[in-house]
Amino acid sequence: MLFGVCVCACLQLQAMETGSIDAMACWEPWISIAQANGGTLLFSGLNSYLGDKQGKVDWLSFYTTMQVSDEYLHEHTDEVKFMLRALEKATNFINESPDEAAAIIASRLNLEKGQVRRIMVDNYYSMAIDQHFRSSCEEMSSFMMKVGQIKDVPTFWDYVNIDYLRATNRSLVTIK
User: pTM (2 decimals)?
Assistant: First the structure.
């Protein structure tokens, strides 16, 4: 079996079509395109479709985070809180109106609404800072050190500041 992992998912799709590789690892929308062309989804960060290991999994947890420098954080407190409120509003909109959200996203990415909706179903949208978030950050930090991307695993609280999210919506912060 030949396996393809490359930065350009377009090349992976072409290689699958020509039979140069049997499997590929990538992200959406390339996964959906591969499936539409006859590929089989084996697993994602939330689900496994592998033999006797089918069902919900917790293999990959990637979070998109808002990152600003300490200097910016302290000089632009109101802007940071405004951005967090806007992100919360957008997150709630996606969860409450997924079809409408899919249509907006599809138009911006030049994709079909149905394709975007199928992608969205496989994701979980939340701004919660909880123990799962912390565990995922620490796991990723350990991995990055193991592969030589960083020299030391930073302490979680050295790079995470929950004060502004807590000030915006206390219920989203459940981590101690």
Answer: 0.77
In-domain check, residue 109:
no
Q: For the segment 53-68, what is each residue's pLDDT rounded down to a tens digit?
A: 899 887 767 788 899 9
Q: How many domains does the chain have?
A: 2
SS3 content of the chain, % helix, strand, coil (to 5): 55, 5, 40
For the chain, how many residues are written? 176
Q: How far is CA 64 from CA 56, 83, 87, 137, in A?
A: 21, 14, 11, 11
Residue 137 lies inside a defined structural domain of this protein: yes
Q: Does residue 140 sit in the same domain as residue 166?
A: yes
Pairing of strands 3-4, 23-24: parallel
CB 133 within 8 A of CB 175: yes
